[in-house]
């Protein structure tokens, strides 16, 4: 009880710091463009305290940055990014410098610095799950490895999951590593009149709709979805947000409002990933009232707890069994998911980030 009161008082104190002109300012460094997850992460950080947290978008301000933001593979890119950061930060007043991704080369500064690491660095650098084996990607990995080695000595490190936190410790990070789960957007919520939504989106009303939301990188393991669709009866159809899988009904570049409708229109969310740093679509599925069949991997167990039908991502029969179980246990799965959603609210994220900034400063 006393600790809860103390935490409340401390949070109000930190909020007062942010509200008072110039008492605590955070500069957030972003290198990716909308709608990438890291871009959205930088915006969530900026929203927690309005004007006292500002975002420096490197991809918008570095000459020739179109190539940088798409490939990030050449060593001299890192050199010019470092020069750019030094130049910008000289004139910008801030108390905390927050790097949102290890792709950004850290620069020496007398201010407090923190980095957010989103993925397991061992798998990121030493497998082909994130990068295919091309000359360009080998250079990218070399560049990223050098950055990560510099971040290993950072005193302040954030992650999005306890799974990644453990991976960073095993990799050799020596700083104070803290986990703060990403929040889901408030756009994701349950809607009524599924039949009407399906009609609006041009989706068949007579079929059981399976949903896949992801990029097509190897770690997403999309091949198994294609195999399952070939074995499932004709009354099943696949709805895909991203690149097509077989004869999927495909949506691309959708707004958050439309994505929320797509979730609500479908019957089961499929997440057969081999590797994830977090996996927010699982929580988005909970928020929109759609049962989830997802891989039995550590990070999904962390965030999904008992609200997911877990499957072996390498076994198509296991995936089909997970789909069947999700449909049969729909109400129970939705009930369990509802209990998890509050942990991923923006308010919880805001409170934890304010406390964190106050602690490291």
TrEMBL record:
Protein name: Glycosyltransferase family 4 protein
Domain Glycosyl transferase family: 194-332
Domain spans labelled Glycosyltransferase subfamily 4-like N-terminal: 83-186
Presence of the UniProt keyword Membrane in the record: no
InterPro entries in alphabetical order: Glyco_trans_1 (IPR001296), Glyco_trans_4-like_N (IPR028098)
Any GO molecular function: glycosyltransferase activity
Keywords: Transferase
């Amino acid at each position: 009880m006393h600790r809860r009161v103390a935490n409340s008082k401390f949070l109000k104190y930190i909020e007062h710091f942010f509200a008072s002109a110039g008492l605590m300012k955070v500069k957030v460094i972003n290198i990716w463009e909308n709608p990438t997850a890291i871009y959205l992460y930088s915006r969530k950080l900026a929203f927690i305290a309005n004007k006292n947290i500002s975002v420096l978008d490197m991809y918008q301000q570095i000459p020739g940055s179109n190539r940088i933001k798409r490939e990030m593979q050449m060593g001299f890119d890192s050199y010019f990014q470092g020069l750019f950061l030094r130049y910008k930060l000289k004139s910008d007043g801030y108390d905390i410098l927050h790097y949102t991704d290890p792709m950004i080369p850290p620069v020496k500064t007398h201010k407090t610095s923190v980095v957010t690491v989103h993925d397991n660095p061992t798998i990121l650098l030493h497998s082909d799950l994130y990068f295919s084996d091309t000359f360009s990607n080998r250079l990218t990995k070399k560049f990223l490895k050098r950055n990560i080695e510099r971040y290993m000595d950072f005193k302040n490190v954030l992650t999005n999951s306890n799974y990644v936190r453990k991976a960073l410790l095993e990799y050799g990070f020596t700083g104070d590593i803290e986990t703060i789960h990403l929040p889901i957007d408030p756009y994701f919520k349950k809607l009524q009149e599924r039949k009407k939504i399906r009609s609006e989106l041009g989706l068949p009303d007579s079929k059981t709709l399976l949903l896949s939301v992801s990029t097509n990188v190897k770690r997403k393991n999309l091949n198994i979805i294609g195999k399952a669709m070939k074995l499932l009866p004709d009354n099943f159809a696949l709805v895909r947000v991203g690149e097509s899988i077989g004869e999927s009904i495909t949506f691309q570049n959708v707004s958050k409002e439309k994505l929320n409708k797509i979730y609500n229109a479908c019957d089961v969310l499929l997440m057969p990933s081999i590797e994830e740093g977090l996996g927010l679509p699982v929580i988005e599925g909970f928020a929109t009232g759609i049962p989830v069949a997802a891989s039995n991997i550590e990070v999904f167990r962390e965030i999904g707890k008992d609200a997911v039908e877990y499957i072996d991502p390498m076994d198509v029969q296991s995936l089909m069994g997970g789909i069947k179980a999700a449909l049969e246990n729909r109400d129970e799965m939705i009930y369990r998911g509802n209990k998890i959603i509050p942990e991923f609210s923006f308010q919880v994220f805001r409170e934890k980030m304010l406390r964190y900034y106050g602690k490291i400063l």
